Prior knowledge:
The structure holds 2 protein chains of 2 kinds.
Chain A: E1 2-5, H1 16-29, E2 32-35, H2 47-50, H3 52-68, E3 73-76, H4 79-91, H5 95-105, E4 114-117, H6 118-125, H7 128-134, E5 143-146, H8 168-175, E6 179-180, H9 199-215, E7 220-223, H10 226-234, H11 236-243, E8 251-253, H12 254-261, H13 266-269, H14 279-284
Parallel strand pairs in A: 1-2, 1-3, 3-4, 5-6, 5-7, 7-8
Helix pairs in contact in A: 1-12, 3-4, 3-5, 6-8, 9-11
Chain B: E1 4-9, H1 21-28, E2 34-40, H2 46-58, E3 63-68, H3 71-84, E4 92-96, H4 98-102, H5 108-126, E5 136-138, E6 143-146, H6 150-161, E7 166-170, E8 184-185, E9 190-191, H7 192-205, E10 209-213, E11 215-223, E12 226-233, H8 248-252, E13 256-258, E14 267-269, E15 271-272, E16 284-285, H9 291-295, H10 300-304, E17 317-323, E18 325-328, E19 332-334, E20 351-353, H11 354-361, E21 382-389, H12 405-419, E22 424-429, H13 439-448, E23 453-456, E24 459-465, E25 468-475, E26 480-486, E27 488-493, E28 495-497, H14 501-508, E29 535-537, H15 547-565, E30 569-571, E31 577-579, H16 589-593, E32 599-608, E33 611-620, H17 630-634, E34 640-642, H18 647-658
Parallel strand pairs in B: 1-2, 1-3, 3-4, 6-7, 6-18, 7-10, 18-29, 20-27, 21-22, 21-27, 22-23
Antiparallel strand pairs in B: 5-30, 8-9, 11-12, 12-17, 13-14, 15-16, 19-28, 24-25, 25-26, 31-34, 32-33
Amino acid sequence: MKYGLYPGCSLxxxxxxxxxxxxxxxxxxxxxxxxxxxxxxxxxxxxxxxxHLLSVALPARxxxxxxxxxxxxxxxxxxxxxxxxxxxxVALRDEATRQEVGEVIEMNVEGKSxxxxxxxxxxxxxxxxxxxxxxxxPLSGLKVASYYGCLLVKPAQVAxxxxxxxMIMDKLMAALGATPVEWSYKTECxxxxxxxxxxxxxxxxxxxxxxYAKLAGADCIVTxxxxxxxxxxxxxxxxxxxxxxxxxLPIYYFTELMGVxxxxxxxxxxxxxxxxxxxxxxxxxxxxx
Amino acid sequence: xxxxxVFVCHCGxxxxxxxxxxxxxxxxxxxxxxxxxxxxxxxxSEPGQVMIQEAIREHNxxxxxxxxxxxxxxxxxxxxCAARAGMNPYMVEQVNIREQCSWVxxxxxxxxxxxxxxxxxxxxxxxxxxxxxxxxxxxTKRSLVIGGGIAGIQAALDIANAGYPVTLLDREHTIxxxxxxxxxxxPTLDCSACIxxxxxxxxxxxxxxxxxxxxxxxxxxxxxxxxxxTIRKKARYVDFDKCTxxxxxxEKCPKKVPSxxxxxxxxxxxxxxxxxxxxxxxxxxxxxxxxxxxxxxxxICKKVCPTGAVDYEQKDELIMERxxxxxxxxxxxxFDISAYxxxxxxxxxxxxxxxxxxxxxxxxxxxxxxxxxxxxxxVPEKIVFVKCVGxxxxxxxxxxxxxxxxxxxxxxxxxxxxxMPNSKSYIFYMDVRTPxxxxxxxxxxxxxxxxxxxxxxxxxxxxxxxxxxIVRGEDSLLGRxxxxxxxxxxxxxxxxxxxxxKDLARTLGISxxxxxxxxxxxxxxxxxxxxxxxxxxxxxxxxxxxxxxSVAQASAAAVKAAGLLSKPELTSEAMTALCDEAICSGxxxxxxxxxxxxxxxxxxxxxxxxxxxxxRVSNVNQGLCQxxxxxxxxxxxxxxxxxxxxxxxxxxxxxxxxxx
Lengths: 289, 660
């Protein structure tokens, strides 16, 4: 299988584990990811607050580049990048917008390449039998709360799954042998975009996500979003203080758990780079033995 | 040339504000055939009609055109007006310069111009009108009521009491409908069964009512006064002539099935009566669950039946009956709450609907009237109601108000407090709508005396933590979010049309709106009639309704049906199709397209080059034809003509428009 890859800024920075594990898992599964040459910022979190045209033009240039290189499907790991790229793809279906944006980026853009969230690619495109055949260390006994965040499921035009109760990551986790828990905070906002500007408001929201995952009996949280991960992981200590309860919930990218199940080394997947210690749960789980 | 009169109506200011009526009348004087053209403030008024009648006599008119409102409004008036002056009523044409001109345009000059065009067409057409005559057809003095809920029962009783035989049909094997599931009724809190069952028994015992339960309408042919209805009587596998209703079979049946009547909160057997007061009170076998019918094993009910009434060989039976009038009273379905994933609806067992709560409250329900929540049987203390679930929600495709929920929630809150004085009800609402007699007073009492707390706002999320349900919403009066830890959540699910309502509508030839509610002929002035003559609507199949409204509409529909049946005969349509046999090629297209089955192909003998030969041509039964005109459009050779709308007349109109 061949896909374009739009890594975005976080996969080499705050979300380096996501970048490492995505690369390792793709290699192991024989998926060919071709990074879009000369890609630029998707504009997430700031452009669409300032200027609508800019917010479409930035990702549109990436789409245009993908087209030039004959890439039909672009896998986008970061949820924020995915949302901006998909929003541009939808906006470009309009003839007038296509023309206007084409003039701004000085490139011809047809809007032919399809933007797909990485989690969607792994959850929907991999054959179930193939996946179970390559799982060497099933995650048996690991209770995971699948946390999708807000960006992948809303609004309806860009949603990869049901906005209220998405299931694709739960199903992927079950295919790896883990036990997804039933919980109600799958798509609640983590407060991501307020983390810098209004940390006190953001922390309450982050803390609630963590609290209800814990109450649902999860051992850990799995996400497809670098922003959610940094909030839940980096601020977990502060959230524990706010809630007055101990959490101890490792926050994994779904690619990290895939990597573990496929038998890859933890350090190779970036699992040693977490704020909340993330390796012992996997070492101690029955899966490791 | 015929002598034609033209009468232009002002309709007060309705037309005159956007059309120069005097000018229109003036211009029409020069149209071919017009010998008199005048205008008047209200042509439909008595002086207006007298004016027309005098003109007919004075100017010896052959026909006239009235430019006024829609023919839907006053065509009968102006036809009768002609008849009173001795003119054939079909020598009148009505040109619509109100709905199709003045009401939809603002520019007076252009409105006048358009009125003149419309009138020119009308005059060109009336010149080609021929006198038409209607005949009479007999009326079958029997009525069919489809649906045996409270609306159907009421309609059947009223028609029967007026002296006409009624067949009351229900697809379930008991009558009673939704009201039978309800525990108490607002605003009086009298027991639903106590007021319903006497009516059920009365209907069953009425000499003019034939109960036909477990039966469905398969096909409807014919037309007003003479509908030929094909009914499927579904196999019950119990011979009702032999069954005494002793109940031995139900007791011994080993197969338990979630009871539909109990909203699946309780169980029934595979051979069962849905509830103790069912009418008829004899069991049937549910073929989808019966062990014997599914895999030939068991047969216990047959063994224990003392009268040998169980008959596994019974088959569906099709019967055809003729009725003069049909009342449709098929009711509603409760909205399927699983569409609200954010409320955990359909997943969290303690998030239930209003009908579930009715069954939990009912003394003969699955908990014998004790409020126990479905998950663990615990008695709830904090109960949250969420209103407008599946109503007034564009996102769920239900923009309409379901009308009964505000009141049934108030009723539930009152009854819960009475049953459990320590309980507390919280009610999330958008608006509280109580437009009914004593409704507002009831709502006030719920708040003031029964301690129900009304919170104005929508609920955004319901989820389970431990054995509590966290209800998160907004109090839009305080302007802040609220969170309630509840033991039980009741969603006030709205009303949906029956999922197969559209199929029935097509079978009956009646119309329905975008949601599937049956459409009345006029929202204000013909609320129980349909656009199909002889078919009437009662109850919630026409739109959400509570019990008093359903009963009122049922009685109204009954009066319409009885009024129709009381006529000695009906006047047949005069504007019917006619086949020109000289042109007809006998292709039969018209026959297959005719919705009233009024066209037959017959053979005619004719002389052709000195020899006799036989040819096939269409023949329209003038009694059956309803003048819909479908055949005239289908006819490839133009042999089929609709009297009053002949090809010649329509072409004359087109010509007139082109000659302006």
